[in-house]
User: Fold this.
Amino acid sequence: MSFEKIGCIADETAKAQAALEQLKQRYGVIDLRTQRGNVDVILVLGGDGFMLQVLHKFMERKTPIYGMNCGTVGFLMNDFSLDQLKERLGHARESTLYPLSMYARCLNGRETEALAINEVSLFRESRQAAKIRVAIDHVTRLQELVCDGILVSTPAGSTAYNFSAGGPIIPLSANLIALTPLAPFRPRRWKGALLHHDASINLEILEPEKRPVSAVADFTEIRDVVSVAIFEQRKISLTLLFDPEHNLEERIIKEQFLY
Assistant:
């Protein structure tokens, strides 16, 4: 791959802004906050949260994205270095991500569509546990799940909230998504499910007025939902670039052996 025209978008932190200025002087990168135009690659300076924002912002652009960590964990980022940027880009490996589509219907009849790169999560809004009916491909699998909530995770998001909630880590090439309950009360022993990536998931809220539930697709929160439909959106793809020694597939595998 050849990347002559490099666009860059940096977080507002002092570290990321300082890095941006250095890269502008050294490589002539284009600051996408102040300049427009087509670029061959988008360089992202920040942490995982900022990377997620940028992925949403440029989702329709189909331009490869290469992140350098100016944040904390940096799971979706490469190590930061000012040296040999074009060489690193030329040797980078591609990882393709597909977002989840969420269609939520509320008590007032309003319908909302949103995309999630990490996960779609449902949460109880009150002191009472939520009651949720779970259907997969139009077949009811759980008549009533009593819980704090439930989430559907992509492989890229499986190492984040999903894993913290007791869900499995999923390799990118597995073509699976995770369905993970949050503090399930009944059925007490249900730990979730792994589903094929093209599965259609329908979550119906039981007693929505008495036990209100909100749905969250990454940054988009919809309150007082009565039903939520979720499926993987293969019409949209995101290309992330990683240094060969830190490719995303390998990072996800490594996460399964940490203790």
Observations:
- The chain is about 15% helix and 40% strand.
- The chain has a mean pLDDT of 93.
